[in-house]
Structure to design on (304 residues):
């Protein structure tokens, strides 16, 4: 059984429509976010929770911000994807699902606009809405290690409906890590979120985290960037990965490698934890929680 790591609640999200107590779900370590659009203008009922995602973002058009509702823990499987018997796993694999209230359908957009019904047409969403999505993805990247990348093709609806060229195969889906749309998930036919501006969303998310982007260099040298925190799941007992080695080298560089006998390695161990604890004790911002387990603030301060 998978073990949940890191925070399970998005800060500020309402739990007024919480469904996990009724529908349970499987624990999993998330490294994928799937974006949906509700094709409605208000918070859906989701059949009492039987088809709910992990979170829903409801636009507050007057305040120009997204109001978030959380229905399941970040790393508990939700219920918004088709999952056929005998095929690949969708809801229950490694996926946090997010519904964006509004439409990706140009015809629906035109109908609502003619009727004077306020809404967001996500392929032409305002910056504040895209930035709200970006802040969530930045948080998922920092806290759970979800890559800020995804498929290249985000075709407009209705081209995105059905088994178009954008949909991943079972094998591609099993290997995928990052952010995709409902239209990319195998065994599903839905075409949402259509031609949402995914490039702009990821650009805003990377700017929020101050991580490297693939933009051309300017004539002014950029200040060194702090590498993004990959997520707590990489720093647990017996975890072995490049991030542990990266952390260990930085601890030694900063003078906090006293507990290493032969130097840092790729495998997280007690020496790593004790060295992190020593660093945390050296910083007033971290002394109150100096447990040796690296989180986003410890990582930022260590690499600053």
């Amino acid at each position: 059984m998978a073990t949940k790591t890191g925070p399970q609640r998005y800060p500020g999200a309402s739990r007024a429509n919480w469904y996990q107590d009724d529908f349970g779900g499987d624990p999993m370590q998330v490294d994928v976010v799937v974006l949906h659009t509700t094709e409605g203008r208000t918070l859906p009922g989701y059949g009492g929770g039987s088809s709910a995602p992990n979170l829903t973002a409801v636009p507050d058009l007057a305040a120009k911000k997204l109001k978030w509702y959380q229905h399941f823990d970040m790393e508990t499987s939700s219920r918004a994807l088709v999952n056929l018997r005998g095929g690949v796993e969708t809801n229950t694999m490694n996926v946090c699902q997010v519904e964006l209230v509004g439409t990706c359908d140009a015809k629906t957009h035109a109908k609502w606009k003619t009727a004077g019904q306020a809404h967001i047409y996500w392929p032409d969403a305002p910056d504040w809405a895209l930035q709200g999505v970006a802040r969530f993805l930045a948080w998922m990247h920092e806290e759970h290690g979800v890559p800020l990348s995804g498929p290249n093709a985000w075709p407009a609806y209705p081209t995105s409906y059905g088994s178009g060229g954008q949909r991943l195969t079972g094998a591609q889906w099993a290997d995928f890590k990052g952010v995709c749309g409902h239209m990319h998930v195998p065994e599903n036919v839905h075409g949402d979120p259509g031609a949402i501006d995914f490039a702009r969303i990821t650009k805003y998310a990377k700017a929020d985290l101050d991580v490297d982007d693939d933009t051309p260099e300017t004539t002014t040298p950029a200040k060194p960037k702090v590498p993004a925190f990959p997520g707590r799941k990489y720093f647990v007992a017996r975890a072995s990965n490049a991030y542990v080695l990266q952390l260990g080298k930085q601890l030694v560089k900063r003078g906090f490698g006293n507990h290493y006998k032969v130097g840092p390695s790729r495998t997280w161990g007690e020496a790593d934890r004790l060295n992190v604890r020593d660093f945390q004790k050296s910083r007033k911002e971290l002394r109150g929680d100096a447990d040796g387990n690296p989180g986003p603030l410890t990582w930022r301060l260590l690499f600053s």
